[in-house]
Specification:
- The complex is a heterodimer of chains A (about 100) and B (about 400).
- By secondary structure, chain A is α+β, with helices and mostly antiparallel strands.
- Chain A has a domain at about 30-95: Alpha-Beta Plaits.
- Chain A is about 10% helix and about 15% strand.
- In chain A, strands 1-4 form a two-stranded antiparallel ribbon. A two-stranded antiparallel sheet of chain A has the order 2-3.
- Chain B is globular.
- Chain B folds into two domains: about 5-245, Rossmann fold (3-Layer(aba) Sandwich), CATH 3.40.50; about 255-385, Rossmann fold (3-Layer(aba) Sandwich).
- In chain B, strand 2, helix 2 and strand 3 form a beta-alpha-beta unit.
- Chain B has helices at about 10-20, 35-45, 60-70, 80-85, 90-95, 120-125, 140-155, 185-190, 215-245, 270-285, 300-310, 330-340, 360-375, and strands spanning about 5-10, 25, 50-55, 75, 105-110, 135, 165-170, 175-180, 255, 265, 290-295, 295-300, 315-320, 345-350, 385.
- The longest helix of chain B is centred in the middle third of the chain and has 33 residues, at about 215-245.
- Classes of the chains: A alpha+beta (about 100), B alpha/beta (about 400).
- At the A-B interface, loops of A face helix 9 of B.
């Protein structure tokens, strides 16, 4: 579809706003709900993966070096990863206007 | 051949669903609707109707089942009344928003408390804003005909909306009336098989009733509103075609001796027939009165209504429901529809016929006379309740 979802007019919508494309919930940016952002100090990280396990959004992703980092497109800034990290790798900082 | 027989209206309404060849019925019995659900259950159990009957545990489940059924492309029917309509309330909105052309007769009943199984329009007014096409019928024949028309209207690809057929509990649902059943072959011609534009289908999956964040909700609601407004054109077409095929005609605003009458009474539902008898007597006594009845409640027929009252000096509006602390619901809509008109009648508002209370011919005459008095001298209250013991 040429238009972004935010550009659709009421005339563009399907009858009953039926979604005909499968799996498109991943296009929905939930990251803009965030008021605090998790920042990683990877120097202290042991790659234990607890942040990955506890993240309720499933948005911690393992990078090529085996470290886990949040995907800010989805991360809602709940801070559970920071609370659970046994080595205080993760700090929550105030989200600022980009 | 079309046959005519004396039969209870609720049973006849169930027979109309059979004539419409419904695929799925999900309903829960509630007085005064029960005979519709029970008769359909019997028709399915006896093999007279090839449909699935889902004996749900509540009205909330009834309407939820209807959503799923209609979404697969099955012609879906339910019926309810009063408290049952209240119990399914949140799902009633979903049917119209998801654009599922379910047809549901509602045997209009008062709401508790005190507990009342008898008729009025309290339940109707609670679902006024649910986005369904809503049609009022005044007798059994109209109820039968409009169940069939309802499927045709709702399933039209330009509409795709659910339809409520309002018939007064007991005063209509439990009357034995002469009914002419439309001929099955002609009904089949009139009502082609239902085809949902994008049904649930495992070969071609879709998702319905998804999350609608603020960036899209307003657009979704605008589309729904425009669609319901635009459905009036199709509703008129369907009634016209029905009239040509079956010889019975329906209009959004029905008139009785109203052309040129200086005082008009406005009613909805089966009490209109008593009102007609009152109009006959008053006209015989030389009074210049007529009657209009709102048949199409949603979408509200603004043009037809304004045209019907354009020459009247006084409009006397009967409501069979209260909006506690506010104006009587039908009258408030009528007044709003007239506000911008350069010439408009004076409006007198009455509430009566609550919880099955009768309004007799003399009662209607009293309401009209008192309405004329209010129009001339004014009233201290927004509306008057007729028939209440002081």
């Amino acid at each position: 579809m040429a238009k972004k979802p935010e550009e659709l007019t009421w005339k563009d919508l399907s009858i009953g706003v039926v979604v005909t494309e499968a799996g498109n919930a991943d296009q929905y940016k939930t990251g803009d709900w965030r008021s605090q952002r998790p920042i990683m100090d990877l120097g202290k990280c042991t790659k234990c993966g607890l942040c990955y396990v506890y993240c309720p959004e499933g948005c911690m992703e393992e990078n090529e070096e085996g470290y886990f980092e949040p995907n800010y497109f989805y991360c809602k800034g709940c801070g559970i990863c920071a609370a659970e990290c046994p080595r205080t790798v993760i700090t929550m900082v105030e989200e600022k206007e980009e | 051949m079309a046959k005519k027989e004396g039969i209870e209206v609720a049973i006849a309404v169930a027979e109309a669903a059979k004539l419409a060849k419904v695929d799925v019925v999900a309903a829960y019995p509630i007085t005064p609707q029960s005979h519709i659900a029970e008769h359909l259950a019997a028709l399915v159990a006896n093999g007279e109707l090839d449909a699935t009957y889902v004996p749900v545990e509540s009205e909330h489940s009834a309407m939820s089942t209807c959503l799923g059924s209609s979404a697969t492309g099955a012609r879906t029917f339910t019926a309810t009344s009063g408290q049952g309509l209240e119990l399914m309330h949140e799902v009633v909105y979903v049917a119209s928003s998801m654009r599922l052309p379910i047809v549901m007769p509602v045997c209009n009943r008062a709401l508790s408390a005190p507990l009342s199984v008898w008729g009025d329009h309290s339940d109707v007014m609670s679902v006024r804003d649910t986005g369904w096409i809503q049609i009022f019928t005044e007798n059994g024949q109209e109820s039968v005909d409009n169940v069939i028309c309802g499927f045709r209207m709702g399933e039209d690809p330009r509409v795709v909306l659910p339809v409520m057929i309002h018939l007064d509990g007991f005063h209509l649902s439990h009357m034995i009336e002469p009914i002419t059943y439309p001929d099955q072959a002609k009904v089949d011609e009139f009502l082609p098989p239902y085809k949902h534009p994008s049904p649930l289908n495992i070969e071609d999956p879709v998702s319905m009733g998804c999350f609608g964040p603020p960036f899209i909700y307003t657009e979704a609601k605008k589309a729904q509103e425009v669609n319901l407004e635009a459905s009036k054109k199709v509703i008129l077409e369907v009634w016209k075609e029905f009239g040509e095929k079956f010889g019975r005609n329906y209009s959004p605003v029905e008139k009785y001796c109203s052309d040129g009458a200086k005082t008009l009474l406005l009613t909805m539902g089966s009490y209109s027939e008593t009102a007609m008898a009152a109009i006959d007597e008053m006209r015989a006594e030389g009074k210049d009165v007529g009657l209009i009845r709102i048949r199409l409640w949603r979408p509200f027929p603004f043009d037809e209504f304004r045209d019907a009252v354009k020459d009247a000096d006084i409009l006397v509006v009967l409501d069979r429901a209260l909006s506690y602390g506010g104006p009587a619901p039908v009258c408030s809509e009528v007044k709003a529809a007239l506000y911008a008109e350069p010439k408009r009648p004076k409006v007198a508002s009455f509430v009566a016929g609550l919880g099955g209370r009768h309004i007799t011919v003399d009662g209607f005459k009293h309401i009209v006379n008192r309405g004329e008095e209010i129009a001339q001298k004014g009233s201290d209250t927004e509306f008057e309740m007729y028939g209440v013991r002081e």
